[in-house]
Design a protein that fits this description.
This protein has helices at 9-15, 112-118, 125-138, 149-169, and strands at 19-24, 27-32, 37-39, 42-43, 50-55, 64-70, 81-87, 89-90, 93-94, 98-102, 109-110. The protein is of the alpha+beta class and 170 residues long.
């Protein structure tokens, strides 16, 4: 709820198309989690509102869902880059995928043009290569104390390749 651009959970939840219920007194409103973030540490919460609940749709058993966090130290460090990817598969083709990065911008960011490149295709080396190329066109990573923009872009592209390699290994 704090809108930290490096939180590990928001990319995962956005990739799963989670929604939140926001409450103030007896009034509630529902919102897709990806619409909750408006900028660095800026959210959709008005004064006196709080997040009452989170609804997380579970992925279908035929889908591929994975999260990768890259940080300087394993497990107990702030992410330099986080990738959460949900690839629903129907008839061997990707249908309705969601690709979300954390640590790349002021908010978690969906790579919507990358999703368009992947949708309707088999999850293959060619599809990943096209997605990597599109990622370079779509995102402009930040540079900060954790990582440079060029490092983040390189890692993001490599994580897409890693997801493919892991999918082939299973």
């Amino acid at each position: 709820g704090s809108a930290s651009p490096i939180g590990d959970l928001p990319p995962l939840l956005i990739a799963l198309n989670a929604s939140i219920t926001i409450q103030c007194g007896n009034k509630t409103r529902k919102l897709a989690l990806e619409d909750h973030y408006h900028g660095y540490r800026k959210t959709s919460l008005a004064a006196s509102e709080f997040i009452h609940s989170v609804v997380i749709p579970l992925p279908e058993t035929s889908s591929l869902f994975t999260v990768h966090k890259i940080s300087k130290r394993m497990d107990d460090d702030i992410s330099s880059v986080c990738l959460a990817i949900h690839l629903p598969l129907a008839g061997g083709k990707i249908k309705g995928c969601r690709v979300v990065f954390g640590g790349m911008a002021a908010t978690p960011i969906r790579a919507k043009s990358v999703e368009q490149v992947l949708n309707g295709r088999e999850f293959s080396q060619e599809a990943v290569r096209d997605a990597q190329n599109e990622l370079g066109n779509e995102l402009s990573p930040i540079s900060d104390a954790r990582a440079s923009a060029s490092y983040r872009m390189s890692v993001a592209k490599n994580l897409l390749q890693r997801v493919l390699l892991e999918a082939r290994a299973t």
